[in-house]
Amino acid sequence: MPRGRRANIGRRTRHASQQQVYSQNLSEERQNIIRENARLRQRVSTRRSLASYNRLAFQYDPTANYSDDENLDIGPMTTICRYCNALKFKRETAGLCCASGKVKLDPLLTPPQPLKPLFDGSDPDSSHFLQHILEYNNCFRMTSFGANIIREGGFMPTCKIQGQIYHLHGSMVPTPDEPHQFLQIYFISSMVDQLNVRCNILGTQQLKRRIIEQLQAFFHANNAVVNMFKTALERMPSDTHKFVIRADCTPTGEHVRRFNAPTVNDVAAIIVGDTTKSRDIVIQRRSNIMHRVNETHRLYDALQCPIIYWQGQDGYDITLKMVDPITGVSTNKNLSAMNYYAYRMMIRTHEENVILKCRRLFQQYAVDMYVKVETERLAFIRFNQAKLRSEDYIHLRDAIHSDGDVQNIGRLTILPSSYIGSPRHMHEYAQDAMTYVRNYGTPDLFITFTCNPKWMTSYQLKFLIQSLIPIYTTL
């Protein structure tokens, strides 16, 4: 080896050793500052590299081949989060999956027989099950799904709703001359009668009796919520008693994010009277009144989607906390619904995500949880108007005083422009659009998007495409 090259290697080795000693002697606070500065430099570099593409559509060149530009190609999902092993595209933010290590949840376990072969394709009826998975879930859900569902004419492979979503539950036993519905079906004494009722639910005529029978036995054996309800019904001596599922309690001695069969009184109780909290689920033995399940209750998800939460696990709960990314210790910062479901819907290495395999059920689940996230944001805005200084918003204070309706006196809640979809947000976007029209003229491009299943990108992302567009099952 030449002497000059040997000297360079020696200098690099000494420099690396000195750098390692320097890093070890730095305080944790100083190391955090250095890491933050490195992240800022990376962000600036990314912005500069993409600055030339800003407003590129206004100077569109039809002769250019934009598909060969690596900056415009999202590429494969090869970026792996060092905290939660989530797979991401190269341009996705570091905190998209787990807020850079601040969110840590127990994985949803892969279901055993008979669900596993129905999901992985080893069952001969797997294709049929995945095509009708939403209807199969409806056979076993314990709450109703209430929403203004938008049904457009012709082919519609997506789930659309307008307005609010609400889940309702009834009593454990129906009143005389009333049919069994939702949760009540689980308490029919004969398993054959249960099966007959499920097979006759509206919209399930195309389902296969064999699959329904297998799933019925599976949920009775493995779903902790079902077993909890059956035990509670046996203990309720009269119709005046109520069964209460606490909204924010876990079994004594258990981890805050772990859900076991709730057989102790701090999780579920049988009471007489009204000693309950607003978020608790209160179920009477026999009644004809439907009650709404609070969207922040920990069993909100499991009661509606038993195929996903086949063990009856906890879903999102407002008492969940973020963790320290270094020590893993819980902090005082609350975990938001957005962070919770962002974590749940990621693809991870060496971990199956049953949610993303549910096709049409996944679509309804995603819409349902998105509404929950938006409800949480609206509640924050409603109860923090003073902190947000809503009365000082430009152009609004005068309108409040001059346009007030004496017939509608009450506390006014103003949505800021940062809330996506609010009137102020849409007004600002409309103003931006009119500015572009004034400078560049009226739009004259008719843009279409095509998808060829034989493209390499489509093949690499077939797992996501089948979840988002269930009709594409031949990729």
TrEMBL record:
Residue ranges, compositional bias (Polar residues): 16-25
Annotated stretches, region: Disordered: 1-25
Biased composition (Basic residues): 1-15
Transmembrane segment boundaries: none
Domain Helitron helicase-like: 340-456
Name of the protein in question: Helitron helicase-like domain-containing protein
